[in-house]
Amino acid sequence: MAVKASSVDNRTRSTVSLCIVIGMCCFFYILGAWQKSGFGKGDSIALEITKRTDCTVLPNLSFDRHHSKAGSSSSDLVSPVKKFKSCPDRYTDYTPCQDQDRAMKFPRENMNYRERHCPPQKEKLHCLIPPPKGYVAPFPWPKSRDYVPFANCPYKSLTVEKAIQNWVQYEGNVFRFPGGGTQFPQGADKYIDQLASVIPIANGTVRTALDTGCGVASWGAYLLKRNVLAMSFAPRDSHEAQVQFALERGVPAVIGVLGTIKLPYPSRAFDMAHCSRCLIPWGANDGMYMMEVDRVLRPGGYWVLSGPPINWKVNYKGWQRTKKDLEAEQNRIEEIADLLCWEKVSEKGEMAIWRKRVNTESCPSRQDESTVQMCESTNPDDVWYKKMKACVTPLPNVKDDSKVAGGAIKPFPGRLHAVPPRIANGFIPGVSSEAFQKDNKMWKKHVKAYSTVNKYLLTGRYRNIMDMNAGFGGFAAAIESPKSWVMNVVPTIAKLPTLGAVYERGLIGIYHDWCEAFSTYPRTYDLIHASGLFTLYKNKCSMEDILLEMDRILRPEGAVILRDDVDVLIKVNSLAQGMRWNTKMVDHEDGPLMREKILYAVKQYWVGGNQTAVA
């Protein structure tokens, strides 16, 4: 009986085991069919990432600064990785669209040769721009405002040319910036104090500023402690590296010039514009340059002009120009200012300040438009490679002369999270106040998730930050701090004209087409963020070219955060590995079933020294 009972038990266990096996087979068959149907996409995505992502490098991802010449190594991906070589050392400060040799082939009239002239596709470099030997991480802010390592910008010409103007001094292995300038040799602080006696800088009314012909951007550097964010620009010319110095100091700046094309900024963007002996011929070309400043100046904004020809009767001897010449120049500037309906609110010493009227109705001379050439374009923000013209950009209409054209803006920081007037008043098609608030909330959530992976994001470690596809500036608003600033780039092919709203939030930014190089020097950004950028540019230009440009402008040991579709990021990750980036891909904050993923990267530290590398 015992033997028989044992036999029955064995048959029972065999039957149960068989049922379990059959049940598991059915379960996995159904699961596989479910995934192929599209409803189980998250699991197949996870499998694809496991197969095609270089998991062995993930533990080596580090956001720490090492100050080491040896970069961390990574094993090969499952799929082949294209390894990018270093460019020859002569390209260490290469600016593709402001290349000096190419510039000399263009006309000098109206500074055309100093504008953007990008290389054709066949002339683009497909190698990594090498940092100079001895390159080190910049000093942390605010020390970086006053000191820049010599090895990072080894150019002494400005210390000689501008010695008496207190621009920059060479001391041992660093450059020191005393805060002086051509018009403020005693320091930018005292100069700004003079401005603040006329312009409401202290109360947040003035938040965004434009500095034309900025030198080493000391004016913008010292405005920062007053919570004013200046967009500074200067050409790449005989004053070698002035914009590079500005960015090494941790001050917003781009390579640019008032020439023949419109500035890459939206209309009604800046609370204040400034020229301190910037050598721009304001009275030339029928006032075209003053009209362009008028386009980007917010209603009620201020224009500051210091240096020649202001108060020429007293100062003409020191300027080495004739009375007649200076008088004619100032008279012409005054005429154009009247035409633009700017009110002169101050002239003291070598400084004059005008204020733009808040609307057209409050401008008596504008009532007779036959005396004013108005711009015909219906979109004043359509500026990319558009020719500048001597015409006045119309302001939005108002119901009465007490209203601000386009809508009044709160003082900063109140304006940062308030609904921008362009959205509240319906100037951005299809975007409601509710949609803007939802976008705000979303980016706060994203940034919170970012900071759990990159613990340095909100600490001030990253001073110069770029958002390559900024939208409404939600990322920048979520990380806003005196410790950092964000260059909000709105691609020229973006679906919505959002850059104006970015400025209305008290942030700064620029239009750009990422099929071309950005107007900056190599190694000028500490962190680069991009959401949906590669999907946006799919079939527009090469993913490889965009990534190489990102590498050019990113500092050694700088960080990258990319959000995009998983299939896109898998391709990006493969290329990034070949560019000496350490990477890590993680799921969306809402879980693995979301197709959108986040790719974190850190650029390895390495320097030049290769004269024979092939470009």
UniProtKB/TrEMBL annotation:
Coiled coil: none annotated. Its EC number is 2.1.1.-. Pfam families: Methyltransf_29. InterPro entries: Put_SAM_MeTrfase, SAM-dependent_MTases_sf. Gene3D superfamilies: Vaccinia Virus protein VP39. It is found in: Endomembrane system; Golgi apparatus membrane; Membrane. This is Methyltransferase. It comes from the Eukaryota. SUPFAM superfamilies: S-adenosyl-L-methionine-dependent methyltransferases. Keywords: Glycoprotein, Golgi apparatus, Membrane, Methyltransferase, Signal-anchor, Transferase, Transmembrane, Transmembrane helix. One of its GO terms (cellular component) is trans-Golgi network. Signal peptide: none annotated. It is a single-pass type II membrane protein; Single-pass membrane protein. Belongs to the methyltransferase superfamily. One of its GO terms (biological process) is methylation. The chain crosses the membrane at residues 12-34. GO terms for molecular function: methyltransferase activity.
